[in-house]
Amino acid sequence: MNEAHHGLRGWLLSDAPQSRLQARAAALYLGWLAFRANPLAMLGLAILVLLFAVAVFAPWLAPHDPFAQDLANRLQPIGTEGHLLGTDSLGRDILSRLIHGARITLYIVGLVALIAPLAGLLVGTVSGYAGGWIDMILMRITDIFLAFPRLVLALAFVAALGAGIENAILAISLTAWPPYARIARAETLTIRKSDYISAIRLQGAGPLRIITRQIWPLCISSLIVRVTLDMAGIILAAAGLGFLGLGAQPPSPEWGAMISEGRRFILDHWWVATMPGLAIFTVSLAFNLLGDGLRDVLDPKSEK
Amino acid sequence: MSALDFEGLNVWFGEGRDRVNAVQGASFKVASGESFGLVGESGSGKSTILRALTGLAPHWSGKIRVMDRELDRGKGRDRAFYKSVQMVFQDPYASLHPRQSVDQVLSEVLYLHGFRDIEARIERLLDDVGLGSAFRFRYPHQLSGGQRQRVAIARALAPEPSILLLDEPTSALDVSVQAEILNLLCDLRAEHGLTFLMVSHDLVVVAHMCEHIVVMQQGRIVEEMSVSDMRAMRVTHPYSQSLLEASLGYRRAQL
């Protein structure tokens, strides 16, 4: 062992790991090294870590109460004393509302990113592995969902379930799962005939075990990549629903709803709509950069 | 007692116009403790026999008996079958899960067969195939082809089978590694009293490993012989003769 391979780094980069923990940690560390080499992905990660920190510490970071109205100070421009990003039509501090809005954005993105890919993974892998009529039925249902324009379908769901942030999340998830099901099924079809699946079948493993233990680990990486690339779309869909008045309801500081409110003043008081717009843009871009970096690390097809 | 008994085995893929008859009317017996070779060119149906036996090729007719127990055609194989019959696949690059370490592969198999002392068994299996515990937590991409095939052999040995099916176990490996794997298989057979059914297109390998040989051509068995017959060139069918001569010519050209 040479000088550079001592200590923690040496332990992580060892060719002969001594324990399960070390093997796992080494695999993670190698992934991290590959990820770190991509500066844009690191930028995306940094923005998202910042967003997360802002969301967690929102009450301490925000200079004002996001709901406190002050009609005497309405529509103040950027840089006003005490209101760094100005105020909106009801005199509420835009910076404080953006900071609190980060929580809502993360809440939406987190829940959708949990529900949609899991549903898609379940449908896709079962469909791909089982084949036959199960595959037929599940894929036709997927086709039906795919045939609707996403926002229109989400609108229909929200209209049926009632406006509100939880229903918006549900509606977005319901429209977002079919592409994941397609990806998972395509991956499963290439995997299921492989020798290592035959080998575990010869050990007496049942379909449930094969799908969850053998196939899922191979599908999840491409799904994670796809989810991070879709995050921007999810944020935009949530913002779109908020903009149309079907997502978060006022006075909630959801970014899309904020743009919607600022729309009336967009010509004379541009910052009211622009600031939440810039926030959406930055976070969407950060997720795209992260997704691109993750694809380089996780996608088995791009491995050297 | 015969470990494996095939009687009038037919295997086909597809139905109707697309039907391909991969094996037609194959009958042979593999005695317990014997090493039996299936020889033929690619596409002659030798691997298909193994796949029909293990249930990986679903369409077959005829009779297959394992340890004098007849296999049910309609149903899958039961746990007792998987405990007594195991298989080593041709390509060690395709037969190991790319995201599972050696430890994960072996412990999952041992768990599936209901063993309790998984830790001790993993150590013993790795020792048996000559890998040692340094390899236990490695992933397939950290192993060479020969090492991967040793892991695949360890996986097949995990349930302590009495019959091992070898589907061209060395054809994807370097010549130098081939000999190591073949010797390992010979040692393991002596040690554990295994019955081998080995598929190969390489007569030299089969002559080294097996006592009895069946030659296949286009899905049919053309000749059955012992290795001593083969060594003495006592073969009758023209196809096996040409196969033998081809392999001899190859050896002379090499020298």
Automatic annotation (TrEMBL), chain A:
Record's keyword annotation contains Protein transport: yes
Transmembrane spans: 40-62, 104-131, 151-177, 223-249, 269-291
Alphabetical keyword list: Cell membrane, Membrane, Peptide transport, Protein transport, Transmembrane, Transmembrane helix, Transport
Any Pfam family the entry gives: BPD_transp_1
GO biological process: protein transport
Family: Belongs to the binding-protein-dependent transport system permease family.
Protein name according to UniProt: Peptide/nickel transport system permease protein
UniProtKB/TrEMBL annotation, chain B:
Enzyme class at the top of the EC tree: translocase
Keyword entries, A-Z: ATP-binding, Cell inner membrane, Cell membrane, Membrane, Nucleotide-binding, Translocase, Transport
Catalytic activity: glutathione(out) + ATP + H2O = glutathione(in) + ADP + phosphate + H(+)
Similarity remark: Belongs to the ABC transporter superfamily. Glutathione importer (TC 3.A.1.5.11) family.
Keyword Translocase among UniProt keywords: yes
Gene3D superfamilies listed in its UniProt record: P-loop containing nucleotide triphosphate hydrolases (3.40.50.300)
Role this protein plays: Part of the ABC transporter complex GsiABCD involved in glutathione import. Responsible for energy coupling to the transport system.
Cross-referenced InterPro entries: AAA+_ATPase, ABC_transp_ATP-bind, ABC_transporter-like_ATP-bd, ABC_transporter-like_CS, P-loop_NTPase
Membrane-topology descriptor: Peripheral membrane protein
Single GO cellular component term: plasma membrane
GO biological process: transmembrane transport
Domain ABC transporter: 6-243
Compartment list: Cell inner membrane; Membrane
Principal place of residence: membrane
Pfam families the record matches: ABC_tran (PF00005)
EC nos: 7.4.2.10
Molecular-function GO term, any one: ATP hydrolysis activity
Protein name: Glutathione import ATP-binding protein GsiA
